[in-house]
Amino acid sequence: MLEFSTVESNHWMLGQRPKVETLGQLMDVLAIQYGDRVLVDEYGGTALTYIQAAELVERISNSVAEVVNPNDRVVLHLPNGYHLFLACLGVARAGAVAVPINDQLTDIEVERIVAECEPALVVTAIEQIVGELGEPIAYVDQSDTAAVFYTSGTTGRPKGVELSHKALLSRLTPLTMLSGLGGVEAVYGLPLSHLMGFIFALSMSMAGVKVNFFPRFDAEAVLDAIESRRPQLFVGVPTMFRMLLEAGADSKDLHSIRVWFSSADAMPQDLARRFQDFGAMFTFPNGVSFGSAAFIEGYGMVELGGAVAAKVLPPLPFKIGLVPEQIRQLGDSIGVGLPFGGATLKVAGSNGAEVVPGVVGELWVKSPGSLKGYFRDRVATDRILDGDGWVRTGDLARRGPCGLIYFVGREKDVIKSGGYSIYAREVEEVLEEHPLVMEASVVGLEDRKLGEVPAAVVRIVQGSDLDEARLLDWCKDRLAHYKTPRKIRIVAELPRTETAKVRRGQLRSLFE
Question: What is the span of the domain harbouring residue 350?
Answer without folding.
Answer: 344-410
